Amino acid sequence: MPRAVKPEATADAPASVGMRLTRQRQILLDLIDKTGRHLDAESLYHLAREKDPKLNRVTVYRTLKLLKEGGLVDELDLMHQAGEQHYYETRRKQEHAHVICLSCGKVEEFFGEPLQKLRRQIELHFGFQIVLARTEVGGYCSHCQTMRAREMEEAASAVAPVKRAPAARVRRQR
Ligand SMILES: [Zn+2]
Ligand SMILES: [Zn+2]
User: What separation in Å is there between the alpha carbon of 20 and the centre of ligand 1?
Assistant: First the structure.
């Protein structure tokens, strides 16, 4: 007797991409979906190993590539703040911009209507069909701005004491 298949069983799975989710893909996808953060491949590898100690690095890297190609995760470089590192995040999240501090590397996410508006304007302007949009903004967070201002003040005051009235005392020589 054939077992009844629950129609909801695959409701969550991205069947549309026609990708069979093997165990390692499911582990990685779950990790990326659940963590609200932007993790690099190496961190994901260590987290995945906690779930399945048999996973090796090559499989994890290859799986990440497949997930990206299947449109299930986004690969970000976050302004190369930490070198050539790439980060992964779920595509189930609402579109957002990444706001990256170039000093401490902190990453904030900006969600909001302006992004959708920009998307619509670009589509209208070029008659373009946008599939993927990535917005990155680099700068200094409020903490780092304070630190930088202080550093600048210190640097300025280190130079300042050399204030001497020049030519105030001219030694007369005969
Ligand atoms: Zn900062
Ligand atoms: Zn993000």
Answer: 41
